Hints:
The chain is of the alpha+beta class. The chain has eight helices and 18 strands. Strands 16-15-14-17-18 form a five-stranded antiparallel beta sheet. Mean pLDDT is 90; it is low at 228-234.
Amino acid sequence: xxxxxxxxxxxxxxxxxxxxxxxxxxxxxxxxxxxxxxxxxxxxxxxxxxxxxxxxxxxxxxxxxxxxxxxxxxxxxxxxxxxxxxxxxxxxxxxxxxxxxxxxxxxxxxxxxxxxxxxxxxxxxxxxxxxxxxxxxxxxxxxxxxxxxxxxxxxxxxxxxxxxxxxxxxxxxxxxxxxxxxxxxxxxxxxxxxxxxxxxxxxxxxxxxxxxxxxxxxxxxxxxxxxxxxxxxxxxxxxxxxxxxxxxxxxxxxxxxxxxxxxxxxxxxxxxxxxxxxxxxxxxxxxxxxxxxxxxxxxxxxxxxxxxxxxxxxxxxxxx
Length: 320
């Protein structure tokens, strides 16, 4: 019997085909939202371990579990009276969450609880600094006076949101990007306690890199954005998805010692996958900004041809 690969994600996840094409058998997808249509998720605990059944398929010999982006069921989605909908949604979430501690012998990419821990930006910076990655001076604060002192003490500072929920303004969802602060763009800090933020010294940016790491394989890529306002320096490459344009090319000159530190960072964080953001300054120094433990990568493979999906498939299937 060939090993099974299980993906915990939305069935519409655009990343699935990039991995599936490198596997002999179909990926088994456990999508919490299929429960809405009567999809099965059954557990039978026993002395020999728990038997897990997904949509009628008994999962045996699971080699790898790929935790991607499962979408929780919300009370508003449920075809039940709204008085009982919160209970129903809670029961479905709890039923699905039992998967997160199953398959202890499988290769997780990555372990859910490791992802939670590694998503802590302060923890990331501490680990990165400890293993020798260069990190910019940074402050996480809710105190306006400390933020103002930090901004005043450095020539160039960026502000970064610490919240992960996008705000809605006048009915329109907004995305908060990393923003350069200067004399013409200083934030109103009076209500910082209601929206704590990250303030970080901004290197003199020459290049922006996205480094995707899968196990011990490293896929560095240069990201260049062109913005409609003519700004050339990059402070948040995501802006290229919304305005201007984005060009991604493989970074062939990526230093081997830096690649080794990126692999070590993931090992220290307990992850099998990471999407690391780095900057290069005018002196050629590399700066670590953050690691997204479950970041998007298909767009990088599409642009560069780097075999990221194959590396994930190999890791999940236990192939060398």
